[in-house]
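Quick question, first post here. What does this chain look like in 3D?
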Amino acid sequence: NNRIMGGSFNTIGGGKNNTLSGACGFIGTGVDHQIHSNYSAVLAGSTNKIYSCANSSGILAGRTNCIKTESKNAIIVGGNCNTLSAIGGFLGGGNKNKIQGYGADNSVLVGGDSNFLSGGLRNFIGGGFRNSIEGLKTCQSFIGGGRSNKIFSCNTSTIAGGCGNEINGSFNTI
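> Answer (accepted):
Ran it through. Tokens below.
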């Protein structure tokens, strides 16, 4: 019950109930995957989705991960219930992590649980639990790990780890 719905040069290698629309797409194996973009791929897992206009994006494995519309050149390596909505974004894995929002382009979230990147360019969260970097003006900032740490509305700031740390000012380090 796999389906290729238009486009050309598409391949579904195996699995069940997979849908591919667009051109030059690839689904390796798995169940209930959907690709609605060009030059995109899902290799394995279940219920992974790449939305329209997320060209040249990929999900390697995992479950219920999605790359949203207009998120070109984005990748999710694996994990569960992760969401990526940024051009050139990288989400390594983990559980319920999100990179989203206008301008969160070229940001990296390696793993962890319930971490959130939104807004500015080129931000990084290594892992941990419920860490966040937010705000359109927040660029080139870093959270290594820990729990409930937050950087917002500033540039080039760092929280190495710990619990409950916050930075709201540029060029600061905790």
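The mean pLDDT is 96.
The two ends are 53 Å apart (CA to CA).
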